[in-house]
Specification:
By secondary structure, the chain is α/β, with parallel strands linked by helices. It has one domain: Divalent-metal-dependent TIM barrel enzymes (TIM Barrel, Alpha-Beta Barrel), CATH 3.20.20. The protein has 10 helices and 8 strands. An 8-stranded parallel beta barrel has the order 1-2-3-4-5-6-7-8, surrounded by 4 helices. Helix 8 links the parallel strand 6 and strand 7 (about 190-195).
């Protein structure tokens, strides 16, 4: 299993020295950069020595996806720019969490919202397919999002979207916050294309002796023979990333042995 860090391009050298295999950059930031800034991003990645294989923060909150006022032409232009740059960086997975963009209006039930979101996911899937990228639906915890919360929500929306380039992500932090059963991962199988991790109750790096039981998550991944990536999406618990990140990566290597 490859282990990566969610962070900016300039974090590459530190992440590499800490044992990471790749960076997961912010799609919105890259999509909206000037040409000069995008050139600097590419240069920073090259200097850091780690590839950007995954991106997150897909669609910014100023696009209200579940709204009749959504400017579809503006969204399509944004996606075209973003995916063009993602391809140039060598990205393979783009994570679709985007809580602000996919927020459901007050009183709207999930099934009604998913009927509106599914065509958006198909549109994103079409754009991604043109450049050989897969979209990974990210369920988010109940206190962050009201549209797609659990892995089972994600599976239902994925099936509704019905696009081969739209698959799933499992985030251990969000699953833990929701109180989900990590064994739900066993029902996803090959549709699970990416994972995130952070310690629930604080969203910090998993660390040796931190008191959290990470084994059910990794046992579930082992149960589906998961061979994808795992990105650390959290903060250093001691506010010292240079000291904390290598310990976190070493722990994750231990838990993921054989994957």
């Amino acid at each position: 299993m490859k282990i990566g860090l969610c962070g900016p391009a300039f974090a590459g050298a530190l992440a590499k020295a800490s044992g990471c295999d790749y960076l997961e950059l912010n799609f919105t930031t890259v999509a909206r950069q000037s040409e000069e800034d995008f050139t600097q991003t590419k240069q920073a990645l090259a200097e850091g020595g780690l590839p950007c294989e995954v991106m997150n923060c897909f669609i910014p909150g100023d696009f209200k996806l579940v709204s009749p006022e959504l400017d579809k032409s503006a969204l399509e232009a944004y996606l075209a720019q973003g995916f063009s740059r993602a391809k140039e960086l060598g990205v393979e997975i783009v994570v679709f969490g985007s809580a602000g963009a996919r927020k459901l209006p007050e009183g709207m039930a999930k099934p009604a919202g998913w009927d509106i979101l599914a065509p958006i996911y198909r549109l994103a899937g079409d754009c991604a397919a043109k450049v050989g990228i897969v979209i990974a639906i990210e369920p988010l915890s109940y206190h962050e999002c009201n549209a797609v919360n659990t892995l089972r929500d994600g599976m239902a929306l994925m099936k509704l979207a019905g696009h081969p380039n739209v698959r799933l992500l499992a985030d251990m932090y969000h699953m833990g916050e929701n109180g989900e059963n990590m064994a739900d991962i066993l029902d996803v199988g090959a549709d699970l294309r990416h994972c995130h991790i952070g310690k629930p109750d604080g969203r910090v790096f998993p660390m040796p002796g931190d008191g959290y039981d990470y084994k059910p998550f990794f046992n579930a991944l082992r149960g589906i023979n998961y061979v994808g990536r795992l990105s650390i999406e959290a903060s250093p618990p001691n506010d010292d990333i240079q000291e904390d990140l290598p310990k976190c990566v070493a722990l994750l290597r231990e838990f993921s042995a054989g994957l």
